[in-house]
Specification:
The protein has two helices and twelve strands, in the order αββββββαββββββ. It has about 190 residues and is α+β, with helices and mostly antiparallel strands. The chain has a single domain, classed as Beta Barrel (Lipocalin). Strands 1, 2, 3, 4, 5, 6, 7, 8, 9, 10, 11 and 12 form a twelve-stranded antiparallel sheet that branches. The N and C termini lie far apart (about 45 Å).
Length: about 190
C-alpha cells in the first residue's frame, strides 16, 4: 500500500512538473515569423545571373525561455523563391529546380528542423544557441547568435550546402554557379499570451 502511494505521488508530481514545463514554453507565431535564405552567384558569367532570395515559412515551433530551448520546423515543399529582380517565368524555373532532386529533393526530404541543445546568454538580450539542423535528410550541428529586440528573436547564420549533401547548381559548363555558402536570416515572434 505504501509503495502504491509513493508511486501515485511520484507520477502526480511528475505530471505537475511536466505541465509547468510545457506551460513555460510559447508557440512560435508562424504567421508573423520569417526566415529568408540568401544564395549567391559566382562564375565567369555571374554578372548575367542574379542572387537568390528564398522565403522559408515556418510550419511550427516552440521557444521555452525558462528551460531555455528552441525548436522550429519547416516544410521544404513550401519554400518559395522571391528573387524580386527575376521575371515570373524565371522564378518558376528556379523554384522547380530548387525543389527537385537536383537541390533539395523536397518530395523525399520534406522536413527541415532546428532543435537546440543549449542556449546561453551572450550579453544583454543576446544568446548563443547551439543545436542541430536537419536538412536534406542530413543533421549537422549549428551555432547561431540571436538577439532579442522588441519581442523578436533575430539573427543570421551561414552554412555550406555541401555539408547537407546538396551540390550547388552549376550552369553553362560552370560559367554560372551558385556558391556553396548560403546565409539564413530569421525573425522569430512568439504567439501572444
Amino acid at each position: 500500500m505504501q509503495k502504491a502511494r509513493v508511486f501515485l505521488l511520484s507520477t502526480t508530481l511528475l505530471s505537475i512538473l511536466a505541465g509547468l514545463c510545457h506551460a513555460a514554453s510559447s508557440p512560435v507565431d508562424v504567421e508573423h515569423s520569417t526566415l529568408t535564405i540568401h544564395a549567391f552567384r559566382k562564375g565567369l558569367f555571374s554578372g548575367f545571373a542574379h542572387d537568390h532570395q528564398i522565403a522559408a515559412p515556418l510550419s511550427s515551433g516552440v521557444v521555452d525561455p525558462a528551460a531555455p530551448s528552441v525548436e522550429v520546423h519547416f516544410d521544404a515543399r513550401k519554400l518559395k523563391v522571391l528573387d524580386p529582380g527575376a521575371s515570373a517565368g524565371d522564378r518558376a524555373k528556379i523554384q522547380e529546380t530548387m525543389l527537385s532532386d537536383k537541390v533539395l529533393d523536397a518530395a523525399r526530404f520534406p522536413e527541415i528542423s532546428f532543435i537546440s541543445r543549449s542556449v546561453k546568454p551572450a550579453g544583454e538580450n543576446a544568446y548563443t544557441v547551439e543545436g542541430d539542423l536537419t536538412l536534406h535528410g542530413t543533421t549537422h550541428p549549428l551555432t547561431l547568435t540571436v538577439s532579442l529586440q522588441n519581442d523578436h528573436y533575430k539573427g543570421s547564420v551561414k552554412l555550406q550546402q555541401s555539408d547537407f549533401g546538396i551540390t550547388p547548381i552549376s550552369l553553362f559548363g560552370g560559367s554560372v554557379k551558385v556558391k556553396d555558402g548560403v546565409e539564413i536570416s530569421f525573425d522569430i515572434v512568439l504567439e501572444a499570451k
